[in-house]
Amino acid sequence: MALGAGFPLLAGVWESHGADADAGVAGLIAPTKDYSRPEEGEDKPGGGATSRGSADNADAFSHSSGNLDVKRELDFKIGNAMFRKNWVSAPSSTDASDGLGPLFNSRACQNCHLKDGRGHPPFTEGVHDDSHSMLVRLSVPPATEAEKAKLASHSVNSTPEPTYGGQLQDLSIQGFKAEGQLKIDYKEEPVKLAGGEVAHLRVPGYSIVDLGYGPLAPNTMISPRIAPPMIGLGLLEAVPEKQILGNADRDDSDHDGISGKPNHVWSREEEKVTLGRFGWKAGVPTIAEQAAAAANGDIGLSTSLIPAPSGDCTEKQKECLDAPNGNSPQYQNVELGDDLFKLIVFYSHNLAVPPRRKPDDPEVLKGKALFSSIGCASCHKPKFVTGDAPGQPHLSHQLIWPYTDLLLHDLGDGLADNRPDGEASGSEWRTAPLWGIGLTQTVNGHTLFLHDGRARNVAEAILWHGGEGQASRDAFAKLSKQDRERLIAFVNSL
Question: What is residue 132's predicted lDDT score, i.e. its pLDDT?
Fold first, then answer.
């Protein structure tokens, strides 16, 4: 029963063993050659875990895995409450809710991952919320042998800026200064398309103003990033490493211009170097570690994985380090205790992917064929089969359709943040999953895409691709208007 809707497709595979099982999986995830009709299972991109809730309202990303045991629905709902919980500064009358800051970006997880969906740059026209759903990563080049050794051993992904740490906190509790604010200046750049149409790309220019603790180091590298959607994370974590690495081609040995590579990072949970899967540069290996890092960096909360009650404060911010914190003996001497933290992680594992919309529409199917023929599917791999998800059998052995390879690709100078992150260079990014992308407007009230929300729609996002994506971008620009609309209709059906 744990296989859910995926059972008819996968039963034969999992009755086999060894090479036969591998061959069965390879057959399931092989690219189709028939674009006249949807593939079997394509209507349920999360397999049996695909959402059973409505996909036509703002809650489309907030439903639990469709095959989740009813006994665990309560865990999901409590995890949801914790995800939405607003934290307060310490000390407070409720020590289960204090520990905010002193410097922070948000008071709750949900305030960045709006409706469990996509964030946006500040002061976005037409978006009526005051969320801080964009953050700024900070780092400097390693200056000492010790710093170089840490990077080489993968024990860290970057060297923090000496005063402001690894992330700019633009909010603070009473009595403290915020670290600073991100300022964005956009310029419009015209792009010619086939048929005489002209698109316009927003080229962002970034600066940090109102610095609260002195100047930044002169060689500081910054990387603005919006919060990504939360759907399908547990399924992506359950994809066997072998399947992901099977798509890696670091040296482009097949000469197709695509050379995806993994980001190997340190795992706090496993205490070893492992495959990165999450974040814009695949800099985090597990959902639990992503949640702990966000709790600490974004909200200022300590957990057993990252027991730092002052959040991202540095040694040069002594008042921040000396401020009262919410560490409590009854919560493992941290601010976000293990039981509640595990519920947040469980919730994050089980935010379901919505079902496809109109996968059998003739125009969508033509767009799917174009998506493949111009090379988009070379990085945005349609399918995987999940392996064993420990403690969550409903996520195991599912045929899923995330449209990502979870690998790093060089997307050229136009999208480069020029800030290395682990093995990712300043121009390399993890292929973003596309499932649910067509519901961004419904859930979040905007269609701002890419790592910093610069693209105002799917077409602009495609036109920003350079480097390994340049050939596909150019092919898209040369399509007729009708074919471009077909391709975009396909993407928006995901």
Answer: 78
